[in-house]
Specification:
Helices cover 45% and strands 15% of the residues. By secondary structure, it is an alpha/beta fold. It has one domain: Rossmann fold (3-Layer(aba) Sandwich), CATH 3.40.50. The chain has a seven-stranded parallel sheet, sandwiched between helices. Helix 4 links the parallel strand 4 and strand 5. Helix 1 packs across helix 8. It is globular, with a radius of gyration of 17 Å.
Length: 253
C-alpha cells in the first residue's frame, strides 16, 4: 500500500471528488482526516472507510476560516501525530450565467473557498511539513483555469489563481522538501455538476453539449481524480512538483 502509516487531510471530503480521494487514500493505507463544512457527509464517509477496515476521523471545517483550518490541522496532529498529505479539494462555483449576473456575495464566496482556502491551508500546514522535513500538498483546481469558457468567468478566475499559486508555492517550498501539485478535472459527476453545465441546469441536452467537447466522450468521475491524487501524492512522483495535471479526457487539447 502506497501510503501505509501516512496521514492525509482531505477538505470537501464528504462527497464528490473528496469522497473518492478520501476512500482511495485510505485503501492505500493512509489515516485520513475527512474535513467538510457539511459534517453529515464527512461522518458518512468516515463510517464507510472504517467499515472497509480503514482509519479515519471527521473534521467539521469551513476552509475560509483560519481558526477552523488551524483546528483541523491540530486534530490531525493530536490524533495521528503527524501530517504527510494535504489535499485542498473543497471548492464551490456560481451557476453558469453571464458574468455580470453574478452578485458580489457569490463572487466573494467563490474566491474565499477556492483561493483564500489555499492561503489558510499553507499558513497552517507548511510549518508542520517544514518541521517534519517535507510533505505533499495537492490542490484540486479545474480545466476552467487553463481553458476558460463563457458563463463561468469568475469561477474560471479563481481556478486560474489556484494553478498559478500551485506553481509559485512549488518553487518557493521546494528547498524545504515540500511538493505542491494541482489536478485540473473537467466537469465531473459531483453535487456541483448542474452549476457547471450550460444554463446552470443538468439536462440531457446540456450534458451532451459538454460531453461533445471531451475527446474521450464522458464527464470526469470522482475515481479518475482520486487516482491522479494518489499518484502525485506518492513516492512514485517524488521528483514531480508544480505540475497542474489535466484529468479531462482531452478537453484542454
Amino acid at each position: 500500500m502506497k501510503f501505509q502509516g501516512q496521514v492525509a487531510i482531505v477538505t470537501g471530503g464528504g462527497s464528490g471528488f473528496g469522497e473518492a480521494i478520501s476512500k482511495l487514500l485510505s485503501q492505500e493505507g493512509a489515516n485520513v482526516v475527512v474535513a467538510d463544512i457539511r459534517s453529515e457527509g464527512a461522518e458518512r464517509v468516515v463510517t464507510e472507510i472504517r467499515a472497509a477496515g480503514g482509519d479515519a476521523i471527521v473534521s467539521s471545517t469551513d476552509v475560509t476560516k483560519n481558526d477552523q483550518v488551524a483546528a483541523m490541522v491540530k486534530l490531525a496532529l493530536d490524533t495521528y501525530g503527524k501530517l504527510d498529505i494535504m489535499v485542498n479539494n473543497a471548492g464551490t462555483t456560481h451557476k453558469s450565467q453571464p458574468m455580470l449576473n453574478v452578485d458580489e456575495k457569490t463572487f466573494d464566496l467563490v474566491f474565499s473557498v477556492n483561493v483564500k482556502s489555499l492561503y489558510l491551508s499553507a499558513k497552517n500546514v507548511v510549518p508542520v511539513f517544514e518541521k517534519q522535513g517535507g510533505g505533499v500538498m495537492i490542490n484540486i483546481s479545474s480545466t476552467a483555469g487553463i481553458r476558460p469558457r463563457p458563463g463561468l468567468t469568475w469561477y474560471n478566475g479563481s481556478k486560474g489563481a489556484a494553478n498559478i499559486l500551485t506553481k509559485s508555492m512549488a518553487v518557493e517550498l521546494a528547498p524545504i522538501k515540500i511538493r505542491v501539485c494541482a489536478i485540473n478535472p473537467v466537469v465531473g459527476e459531483t453535487g456541483l455538476t448542474a452549476d457547471f453545465l450550460p444554463g446552470g441546469e443538468d439536462t440531457p441536452e446540456s450534458r451532451a453539449k459538454v460531453i461533445s467537447s471531451i475527446p474521450l466522450g464522458r464527464l470526469a468521475m470522482p475515481l479518475d481524480v482520486a487516482k491522479a491524487v494518489a499518484f502525485l501524492a506518492s513516492d512514485e512522483a517524488a521528483f514531480i512538483t508544480g505540475v497542474c495535471l489535466e484529468v479531462d479526457g482531452g478537453r484542454s487539447i
